[in-house]
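Attaching the record inline, Q. Sequence:
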Amino acid sequence: MFVDARLLAILGAMLLAGAPVAAQDIPIPSLLDRSVRGLFNGDESREPGGYVSPSATELLPDSRDVGAAPQGSLRRFEPIALPSSLGRPNAPAITLPGLPAYAPQNMPSKDVITPRAPLILEARLTEDSEAIPNGLVWRLFSAIPAIDGRPTLIASSQSSVANFEVPAGSYILHVGFGRAGVVKRIEFSGVRTRETVVLGAGGLKLEAIAADGSAIDPTKLKFDVYTDAEDDSDRDLVASDVPPDKVLRLNADTYHVVSSYGSVNASVRADIRVESGKLTEARLQHRAALLTMKLVREPGGEAIADTAWSITTASGDVVRESVGAFPSMVLAAGDYVIVAKNRDKVYQRQFEVRAGENTDVEVLTSDVAAVVSDGVGSGD
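Structure, as predicted:
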């Protein structure tokens, strides 16, 4: 087989030089590889490789001169420096004088954690009556007064059955039923308790009629209720301006009732007993009448305007004064003197009020002698 003399010369020069580094740095051309191996292995087929001209091997730079990584594998790993302490960096200590080291925790009260047993209350008019279904006002006060001496309201309710969730202790209970009421001290042990309060109360219903049995205009009636006492100055007002047919809720007791018909002098008084658990109805009778007065020139004539009126008793005590053409008022039965003043003239007439006889009273200018007077009937 023919071998190129030039290739043999190059091979011989490389063997004689004995430089293993250069042999590793200079790649062996595939043609040379094939030629040399072909010398020893015959015509064994080889896959084609990259071709490098033999004349260019001297021009290839060393890998270390151009900063390329060496071809050999790493034999040794250098340790990587780690931080001396792991986690968050240490912050400098901060000193704040006057502040607590920790915030106090607001722990829930034991009364909040532990459910309270209820205090259940109901009310009755008497021991044997049914429970009162409505109209009750419950007020629970502490038995220990405040600094100013006034009781401290703990709880209130307007239910028919009061349900108070309060801690164990002493309490003052007030139950109101209209104008009836009761005060009671309660010692609550903290265990579920149900108590019944007996009010001992009843009802009072008032009305009034005329002396002849006829009805009275309810708008002209009103009642005042007082406590019972021997002297009027010792009576306490319980209810005022009570209209007829209204039921008053009162504690069982005796009461002094004043019925007023109109706003002048028609009134009647009575002492009435209210029983527990019962409705007491009282009817009072008035001996009075409603009068309408007018000053006329002739009977049935037209009333003269701008007239001042003065009503006096037979003894001269003034009962009522008014101004107008048609003054109207309720007077108790009895004898009166009616004085009418118009401009500079004064007219008067005696008149008897009969119980239950409502009437119009005419004062005639012709029948009654005119009397000049500056001190009668100034009006109101």
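The mean pLDDT is 80. The two ends are 164 Å apart (CA to CA).

More tomorrow.
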